[in-house]
């Protein structure tokens, strides 16, 4: 039924201007207002590979406690260093063996991953498949 439809993901933030600045200026993504919805603050994040994500305002926003956006990168050390240079702070999770940069190195066939948040507390990650 929906196999031929176009699908996209979305998430809420309390302040779309702050989100736009972070995703555009810190992460380097293309961020555009949704045509015709500018006065409502709806944004489109254009992700590498052509995917799009809707970002919408929600005044009583509470951030998710799980990762919402994952960015696959060819070199996690390079990505973490570049993001840290732009002021991104990486999260630490109990039970994960993370190095000084905050990277949980690949184990048991999983990727190496480092988590961070946007200004609203939305959890994102950079990850490198091994």
Q: Helix segment count?
A: 2
Number of domains: 2
What's the overall geometry? Answer: globular
Report mean pLDDT, rounded to a whole number: 93
CATH H-level superfamily title of the largest domain: 2,3-Dihydroxybiphenyl 1,2-Dioxygenase, domain 1
SSE inventory with pairings:
Elements lengths: L8 E5 L2 H11 L3 E4 L9 E4 L5 E6 L9 E6 L3 H10 L26 E6 L5 E6 L2
Parallel strand pairs: 1-4, 5-7
Antiparallel strand pairs: 2-3, 3-4, 6-7
Outline the structure in words.
This protein has 130 residues and is an alpha/beta fold. The protein has two domains: 9-57, 2,3-Dihydroxybiphenyl 1,2-Dioxygenase, domain 1; 67-128, 2,3-Dihydroxybiphenyl 1,2-Dioxygenase, domain 1 (Roll), CATH 3.10.180. The chain is built from two helices and seven strands. The protein has helices at 16-26, 76-85, and strands at residues 9-13, 30-33, 43-46, 52-57, 67-72, 112-117, 123-128. The chain has a four-stranded mixed sheet, with helices on one face. It has a three-stranded mixed sheet with strand order 5-7-6. It starts with 8 loop residues before the first strand and ends with a strand. Residues 5-129 form the VOC domain.
List its salient traits.
130 residues, alpha/beta, 2,3-Dihydroxybiphenyl 1,2-Dioxygenase, domain 1, 2 domains, three-stranded mixed β-sheet, 7 strands
Briefly summarize what is shown.
The chain is α/β, with parallel strands linked by helices and 130 residues long. It is 16% helix and 28% strand.
């Amino acid at each position: 039924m929906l196999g031929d439809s176009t699908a996209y993901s979305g998430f809420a933030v309390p302040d779309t201007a702050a989100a736009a600045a972070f995703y555009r200026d810190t992460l380097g993504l293309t961020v555009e207002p949704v045509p015709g919805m500018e006065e409502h603050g709806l944004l489109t994040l254009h992700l590498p590979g052509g995917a799009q994500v809707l970002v919408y305002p929600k005044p009583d926003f509470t951030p998710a406690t799980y990762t919402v956006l994952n960015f696959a990168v060819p070199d996690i050390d390079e990505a973490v260093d570049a993001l840290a240079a732009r002021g991104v702070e990486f999260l630490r999770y109990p039970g994960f063996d993370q190095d000084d940069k905050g990277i949980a190195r690949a184990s048991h066939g999983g990727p190496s991953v480092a988590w961070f948040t946007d200004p609203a507390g939305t959890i994102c990650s950079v990850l490198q498949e091994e």
